[in-house]
Amino acid sequence: ADEKSFEEKSINSSGSAFYSPSKGHVVNLLDAPVPVSRKLSLREQRDCEVIQRLIKSYFLIVRKTIQDSVPKTVMHFLVNHVKDNLQSELVGQLYKSQLLDGLLTESEDMAAQRAEAAHMLKALQRASQIISEIRETQLW
After folding, report:
1. Residue 19 phi/psi, 5° resolution?
2. The model scores a pTM over 0.90
């Protein structure tokens, strides 16, 4: 009896039991004395059944909503935790002294590209100077 899940304890065959975790026992709501003044008419019985089905449907919807929102909430907190702590962790890894020298050294390809760009800059500056001299000589 103790190994029953919460769902098994919360609903008996007639759907009227309630498990109280604080008290540790099942309370059957149909066992409570109900003052009976008259029998329900057929329409009233049908209305009661409809209300009972609507209540069960409502609780199933609420249960499904909670089941859907729990993983979303867990993922939200996990993603936010990673987002908050990832940058500090990466910066900490980046500034380790043994890696810093290797990261700051220029690769041979980049050095060659930089030298080529500097040479091209000098050539273009010289070409600009020559063009401006030609313009000045034509204006005189």
Report:
1. -95, 125
2. no
